[in-house]
Specification:
The complex is a heterodimer of chains A (308) and B (269). By secondary structure, chain A is mainly alpha-helical. Chain A has twelve helices and two strands. In chain A, strand 1 and strand 2 form a beta hairpin. The radius of gyration of chain A is 23 Å and the shape is flat. In chain A, 36% of the residues are buried. Chain B is an alpha/beta fold. Classes of the chains: A mainly alpha (308), B alpha/beta (269). Chains A and B meet through helix 7 and helix 8 of A and helix 2, helix 3 and helix 6 of B.
């Protein structure tokens, strides 16, 4: 083995500690969340995840916590966010790359990249003071007035703070993020595929339709990461979701999410014997939701033949 | 530098002959930004022959080829001056989509859509241009095109598998089938074998020989040997200028220009 080869070979020993550090952090956090959740599991078992009760009491025997409403709210609002972000981010990416005049292309990209990096409280305040009243007046009230026989719209929007508001706000927040990933994938599609599709007599619209199919894996990946951001989002969501222990299929009903629950209850949790543990258990569920979403993503990608 | 002269050369003479050329260019100039890539090329390409455009790398042959089906327009920096006629009609007076239907193209890198099935790849041009309507007709045309491209026997049992499952040589024949399916009158080939092994190359060259009975083939190559093997006529391009054009046999036996001779004997290129 030459000196150079040995150098390349030893490089892995240099990299290994960093790899172990990153993985170790993950393992350690999981361990901490798990061990901190043990008291609540001993107290009430799996019911922490299967019931919707939030009863704090000075008497530990009367304490009872169930975070089902928050889990439901987290998943519900994040799915809404993805449904909104999918068309927005794909259309935006295609427009910027294929249609935008050269002069506005870069400004558009910079603008969305800045939006992707804004602190979420910025979105939260805008959401609470601007978006929610608008949505209530122009979307929720009319839908409730005319279509309230559909369960989705059956809840009377009193304040406007609801799953719907949270979902729309999250959708807007994650769009620049998902769009950046989709845009870069679309941009880096080899030029030979563009030539191929145009040489077959495609119009620009037809070419876009075919080319976008070639980046399906990037779209899935972008949306998965966006889902991760949406489900982890805390402050902005707690400002617009209503923070109510509630499980309802209706879009306009208020609810809770795991992260907003933790943020709201954390301050006084130390007063009670089991509440801190309950909040850790709530956090632990996010690990499992994250795992489930990632597995789902791998399965989808495998269907396209990109992961073997 | 000597430039090919017009006298007594049918490939250069301007429209005074009634014969309909598959492609003819008139004072074609192409620029990439400030770079003058193709300089004053006037050329006639007869019907149903294999016409090779030969020259060293960077002489502008691929660029010129892309002008013939207006694919060059995908590149915002490219500018074309002069005229190009396909069967006597200026391509700039036609819809580019129609030009590309008549003038098909095969590229240097095999570029079927990797996640699309073999069948859908061949049917792509048909569907885009609505050339055939029923599913049955599409399947028939796909089979016909794959047979023309000498690929049918190898893929007939896996038409619904993705194109990425094929080897490089097979993918290139798939690209040929994709073009042939649209029944174009001209097929442009941009160094179609430069990324293939010798056996795949031989198959493609045999295919070219087969196809020229029905279509005009314009093939770009940097290899004089390939030009000699496949073409009936050849044009030699050097630094964007047309140096010499004529029948392949004549040019290889008796090149008129010194540059051509140097290129053919391997002293330049």
């Amino acid at each position: 083995m030459s000196k150079e080869e040995r150098y390349i070979d030893t490089f892995k020993y240099f990299l290994l500690p960093f790899c172990l550090f990153v993985f170790g952090l993950f393992a350690l956090m999981l361990a901490v969340y798990f061990s901190a959740s043990i008291p609540i599991f001993q107290h009430e078992g799996i019911k922490i995840y299967t019931t919707n009760i939030w009863r704090a009491s000075e008497n530990p025997n009367k304490e009872f916590y169930g975070v089902l409403a928050a889990i439901y709210g987290s998943v519900y609002t994040s799915v809404l966010a993805i449904l909104i972000a999918l068309p927005l981010s794909v259309s935006f990416a295609v427009f910027v790359i294929d249609y935008a005049p050269q002069k506005v292309k870069e400004p558009l990209i910079v603008a969305t990249d800045v939006m992707a990096g804004l602190p979420t409280i910025i979105y939260g305040i805008w959401g609470a003071f601007v978006l929610v009243p608008l949505l209530k007046k122009y979307v929720m009230d009319p839908l409730y007035a005319y279509l309230s026989f559909i369960p989705l719209f059956s809840f009377k929007p009193v304040t406007g703070y609801s799953y719907f508001s949270a979902g729309v706000l999250l959708g807007i927040m994650v769009t620049p993020f998902a769009s950046a990933i989709i845009r870069e994938a679309y941009r880096s599609l080899p030029f030979m595929y563009r030539e191929a599709i145009y040489s077959l007599g495609a119009t620009r619209y037809e070419a876009t339709k075919i080319l976008i199919k070639e980046i399906k894996p990037a779209i899935v990946a972008g949306l998965l990461l966006a889902f991760g951001r949406a489900i982890g989002e805390t402050v902005a969501v707690s400002l617009v979701i209503g923070n109510t222990f509630n499980i309802s299929p209706s879009l306009f009903a208020p609810g809770y999410t795991i992260s907003s629950l933790i943020a709201n209850q954390f301050g006084n949790a130390f007063i009670y014997k089991y509440m801190v543990s309950a909040l850790f258990a709530a956090g632990l569920s996010l690990f499992f939701i994250g795992l489930a979403v990632n597995i789902l993503g791998i399965l989808i990608l495998r269907r396209y033949g990109h992961v073997r | 530098m000597m430039i090919a002269k017009e006298e007594n050369n049918i490939f250069l003479k301007q429209s005074n002959l009634k014969q309909n050329y598959a492609i003819s260019t008139e004072k074609l100039n192409i620029y990439y930004g400030d770079h003058h890539v193709i300089k004053d090329v006037s050329l006639n390409i007869p019907e149903k022959v294999v016409f090779a455009i030969m020259g060293p790398s960077g002489c502008g042959k691929s660029t010129m080829l892309r002008a013939f089906n207006r694919l060059l327009e995908l590149n915002e920096k490219a500018k074309v001056k002069g005229d190009i006629k396909v069967f006597g009609k200026s391509i700039y007076k036609m819809n580019p989509i129609k030009v590309r239907r008549i003038v098909g193209m095969v590229f240097q890198h095999p570029n079927p859509f990797p996640h699309m099935s073999i069948r859908d790849n061949v049917a792509l041009g048909l569907k885009l241009n609505k050339l055939v309507k029923s599913k049955k007709e599409i399947n028939e045309r796909v089979e016909w095109a794959l047979k023309k491209a000498a690929l049918w026997e190898e893929v007939k049992n896996k038409l619904d598998e993705p194109a990425s499952a094929l080897s490089g040589g097979q993918q290139q024949r798939l690209c040929i089938a994709r073009v042939v399916a649209m029944k174009p009158k001209v097929i442009l080939m941009d160094e179609p074998t430069s990324n293939l092994d010798p056996i795949s190359t031989k198959k493609i060259e045999e295919l070219i020989d087969e196809l020229k009975r029905e279509v005009t083939i314009v093939i770009v190559t940097h290899s004089p040997a390939q030009a000699a093997r496949v073409s009936d006529y050849v044009a030699f391009l050097y630094l964007g200028k047309l140096i010499e054009v004529g029948s392949t046999v004549d040019m290889f036996e008796n090149p008129k220009e010194k540059l051509t001779e140097e290129y053919l004997t391997g002293r330049m290129g």
